[in-house]
Amino acid sequence: MITVEITKNPLKTIVSHVENPSERRELFAVIRETMKRSLSDAARAKGGKSFWATVAQSVTGESDANSAIVGATHPAAAIRQFGGTISAPGQGPGATGAKYLSIPVSDRARGKSPREFNNLFFVMAKGGGKYLFDAAHEGALMYVLKKSVNHPADPWIPSDPKIEKDLQGATRAWLDSRRRV
């Protein structure tokens, strides 16, 4: 989850002047939904076939009369945002305890586990590289096997100025709707 602390005017001023608990809950619900939309839109804007769409769908949040918390539950969202090392054997949901990470290098392998293929064979090169080839398709290279990979940061969460702009617009619209009541 990410945390955005409201420290700048006019947001801080608006929040500090809303004393009614039900109105504060309503305001923080608006802030929550604005943040969710901002993060989802930013993930979708990264493009690609399906990864970023699933990150966008995983954006969730909660709010009460004092705060709003928004984040992405997709297991790879944080590694994409901040970068880091991914190592075998994996841990967490879906981990198989494999000794190596299988990095797909062919279009037929993308999105699939090596376990989904019946005709793969293992080759270790002189330099120590480890590979899986497909015997059923003329020995096509399917996967490179690695103990770990360093994933560079690929930030997708909007910048503070973008979030502030979105939140200011949403809170102003909320205030305007309250004035009409």
Task: List SSEs in N-to-C order.
Answer: HHHEEHEEEEEEH
Number of E strands: 8
C-alpha geometry: elongated
User: Span between N and C termini?
Assistant: 34 Å
Mean pLDDT: 87
Largest sheet: 4 strands, antiparallel
Q: What does the radius of gyration come to?
A: 23 Å
Q: Helix count, per DSSP? A: 5
Which class of secondary structure composition applies to the elements? alpha+beta
Strand order of the largest sheet: 4-7-6-5
Low-confidence spans: none
Question: Approximately how much helix is present in the residues?
Answer: 25-40%
Strand content: 15-25%
Characteristic key phrases:
181 residues, alpha+beta, four-stranded antiparallel β-sheet, two-stranded antiparallel ribbon, 5 helices, 36% helix, elongated
Topology, please?
Blueprint (H helix, E strand, L loop, with lengths): L10 H7 L3 H25 L5 H7 L1 E5 L4 E5 L4 H6 L1 E4 L13 E4 L15 E5 L5 E5 L5 E7 L1 E4 L8 H21 L1
Description:
The chain has a four-stranded antiparallel sheet with strand order 4-7-6-5, with no helix packed on it. Strands 1-2 form a two-stranded antiparallel sheet. Strands 3-8 form a two-stranded antiparallel ribbon. It is elongated. It contains five helices and eight strands. Helices cover 36% and strands 22% of the residues. Helix 2 (21-45) packs antiparallel against helix 3 and helix 2 packs across helix 5 (160-180). It starts with 10 loop residues before the first helix and ends with a helix.
